[in-house]
Amino acid sequence: MLSADQFVTSKALDESGWLEARREGLSATTMAKAMTPAGYRDVMLAWGDTTPIPVNDYMRFGLENEPWLSFWAKEQFGTMPNDWLIRHESNDVALATPDGLSLDHTAILEIKTTGKDWAKPPAQYIRQVQWQIYVTGAAYCYFVWLLREEYEGRLVPAWLEPKYMVIERDDNLITDMVYTAEELWTDIRGTYGTF
């Protein structure tokens, strides 16, 4: 069960503070990318650039649909929508913002929108979920995805309801990710200084 002091900051209440707090450690998005040699290099190169990523049409579609998808998941699984940055109970650089949490914190939720349906989520998203599971101490994740399509020049949902699958905790992958995170944080601090 997460303790109150593990909830660092809310994106909805203070987005700039949320972004700043994410730079005090390694988020699930960062760790998902850093698990390949090319991704590791990309994370290192991009770390010094704090320019916000401009919101494109695909990102906007995801942002616009995430609220109703969160409530759909709440109805289906009992996960509560979440926008809090969470810190691991003992590893201060391990951070994550799962899209939802069950009340007993045994399950998390991750929502994606996609232009291509999946038989199973891409490897990068599996890694992202495993880092979130590690940070929160959860046992599994409800992974929800919604297909989008273009209609009359606009992106719209291609389905009435999303698809989902349950992703179980993978302690072997988590161990590899924790090891990589230690290396990555050492390299970031060596290159960009302390925070």
H/E element string?
A: EHHHHEEEEEHEEEH
Considering DSSP H and I runs of 4 or more, what fraction of the residues is helical?
40-55%
Q: Mean of the pLDDT scores? A: 95
Quantity of strands, as a count: 9
Main sheet attributes: strand count, strand direction, barrel closure = 6 strands, mixed
Beta-strand residue fraction: 15-25%
Distance between the termini: 28 Å
Number of helices: 6
Shape: globular
Structural class: alpha+beta
What is the CA-based Rg, rounded? 17 Å
Q: Low-confidence runs (pLDDT<50, min 5 residues)?
A: none
SSE layout and pairings?
Blueprint: E1 7-10, H1 15-22, H2 28-34, H3 37-46, H4 57-77, E2 79-81, E3 84-87, E4 95-96, E5 100-102, E6 107-114, H5 123-136, E7 140-151, E8 154-157, E9 163-168, H6 171-192
Helix pairs in contact: 2-3, 2-5, 5-6
Describe the structure in your own words:
The chain is of the alpha+beta class. Helix content is 42%, strand content 24%. It is built from six helices and nine strands, in the order E-H-H-H-H-E-E-E-E-E-H-E-E-E-H. The protein has helices spanning 15-22, 28-34, 37-46, 57-77, 123-136, 171-192, and strands at 7-10, 79-81, 84-87, 95-96, 100-102, 107-114, 140-151, 154-157, 163-168. Strands 2, 5, 6, 7, 8 and 9 form a six-stranded mixed sheet that branches. A three-stranded antiparallel sheet has the order 1-3-4. Strand 6 (107-114), helix 5 (123-136) and strand 7 form a beta-alpha-beta unit. Helix 2 packs across helix 3 and helix 5 crosses helix 6 (171-192). The longest helix has 22 residues, at 171-192. It is globular. The mean pLDDT is 95.
